[in-house]
Design brief:
By secondary structure, this protein is of the alpha+beta class. It has nine helices and eight strands. It has one domain: Alpha-Beta Complex (DHBP synthase). The protein has a six-stranded mixed β-sheet with strand order 1-2-6-3-5-4, sandwiched between helices. A two-stranded antiparallel ribbon has the order 7-8. A hairpin with a 4-residue loop joins β7 and β8. The radius of gyration is 17 Å and the shape is globular.
């Protein structure tokens, strides 16, 4: 049985509200501002970049990204080592809190203009969420890769994060935490997240400050 806090977080996400999620001590030790991707509006993108300030990304459940046939960015780089040796020199083998990154490609929706405005990014994020829902619940025989290509172009301004197979059994990052939370609540497991930063200290926003922010805005 989920705790009351988790039940409240799921209810908050279902209502289209932001939820603040912390990973754990000894890892990134960061709080992310999180929302279901399908519910994102331009004012939400503004809030993420203005109040949080980190990188706005979309986390995708493994069932979805496998059907979309998306690569991890490090695997994509590895396939190019023969042509671009500098990519091999840039291997991220010294990340102090993790073994590998969840980053995949960047995308814009094909109906965006530059892709960077709050309106454009909201469209991209929302449509990723809606396509993700159709993919997650749809027939595995559908050509989801082609549907992704019909709706999105790459490179773009929205970073995709691929949740690990096994979710929290394999990795305990914000990518897996947010997707697992949505799945636990039988919600669409495509989330948008952004790290909360502190302009005064130049570091991640502390848990105490994040709690004060959550209380001011009545977020879980």
């Amino acid at each position: 049985m989920p705790s009351e806090t988790i039940r409240n977080a799921i209810k908050s996400l279902a209502m289209g509200k932001f939820t603040l999620i912390y990973d754990k001590e000894g890892r990134e030790e960061e709080v992310d501002l999180v929302k279901l991707a399908e519910k994102v509006k331009p004012e939400d993108v503004y809030r993420m970049r203005h109040d949080a300030g980190g990188l706005i990304c979309v986390a995708v459940h493994p069932k979805i990204w496998h059907r979309w046939e998306l690569p991890f960015l490090h695997d994509l780089f590895q396939s190019c080592y023969a042509s671009y040796g500098v990519l091999e020199a840039l291997i991220p083998n010294d990340i102090p809190y993790d073994e590998k990154s969840a980053f995949s490609v960047t995308v814009n929706h094909r109906k965006t203009f530059t892709g960077i405005t709050d309106k454009d990014r909201a469209l991209t994020i929302r449509e990723l969420g809606l396509l993700g829902k159709r993919t997650y619940t749809g027939n595995s025989e559908n050509n989801w890769r082609e549907e992704l290509g019909r709706n999105f172009r790459s490179p773009g301004h929205v970073h995709l994060l691929l949740a690990s197979d096994g979710l929290l059994k394999s990795r305990q990052g914000h990518t897996e935490l947010t997707v697992a939370l949505a799945e636990l609540g039988q919600l669409n497991p495509v989330t948008v997240l952004c790290e909360m930063l502190d302009g005064k200290t130049g570091k991640a926003l502390s848990i105490s400050e994040a709690k004060r922010y959550a209380n001011r805005h009545k977020y879980v």
